[in-house]
Amino acid sequence: MSKYLFDNLSYLKTFKNDSSTAIVTDIDGTISEIAPTPDEAVVTESMQNALVKLNDKFQLVAVISGRSVLNARAMVGVEGLLYVGNHGMEFLKNGHLSMDPLVEKYLPQIQKSGQKLKKGDLSHINGLMFEDKGICYSIHYRLSNSPENVREKILNTLQNDPECKNLKISEGRRLVELKPPVNCDKGTILNNIMDQYNLKKIIYLGDDITDSDAFNKLKELENEGKIEGAGILVRSSEIPSYVKKHSSFFVNDVDEVLKFFQWLLN
Q: Is 56 inside any structural domain?
């Protein structure tokens, strides 16, 4: 079971004092508060300033998000970071945008399926928000009257729709998502970033189901002796208990993430 980070900061001193450390973080629920809709979420000026200083101090600061990469970049608003969007299917670094070549052929189908769901099969449910992210298509049910019942309806609709059969259906905090069926998650992204930047020390921060892939990969790489890793979970009541088991440490909220960043910088 993960330990409370601020009772165990001594374990992270080697990361703090080594400029080759990499900080890899999720956005929503980790460096920004969860908001009723994605457009309402913000990264505060204090958090932005901390990210700028972390990027100056350490080898790499990377932001991995389920948002589109351009939306992630606009939201965080810090130059010089590595931005990874749509769960690792697109990258933005120093103005250069690239997409996983395997996803392109699925884009028309995802667009078509998303529009069909929005206009027909799920249009009668109050409180749903449909988000076209280019590569992926999200259905947010946070604002619905009975979130758990609505979640079941969305999943059943997608699983019974023949057009969604060869697409990937995944879940996050109060959302269900259609994705291209490629082998791409936050664990594979972490592995790729490690190889590309020759990283030896990685701190990963996240708050959601999708972050458990990164926490597991971090432990796997550490067990293989490839890196020193620290997985930090931002706890919430909205995620399953198994996610809490996969991280090394936990904090209670976004404010404590900022407090940790400030500790790294002092």
A: yes
Vertex 230 angle, CA 44 and 100, to 5°: 70
User: What is the rounded CA–CA span in Å between residue 16 and residue 19?
Assistant: 8
Cβ–Cβ under 8 Å, residues 203 and 21: yes
Average pLDDT over every residue of 25-29: 96
Task: Flag the least confident range among 10-14, 43-47, 101-105.
Answer: 101-105
Q: Find the domain containing 42 and state its range.
A: 21-100+184-265
Residue 249 and residue 247: Cα distance in Å, rounded? 6
**Residue 78 predicted with pLDDT over 90:** yes
pLDDT tens, 80-93? 999 999 988 999 99
Which string of b and e fits 3-25 if b means at least 16 CB within 10 Å?
Answer: eebeeeeeebeebbeeeebbbbb
Q: Which residues pair with 23 in a beta bridge?
A: 61, 203
Helix (H) or strand (E) holding 241: helix 241-246
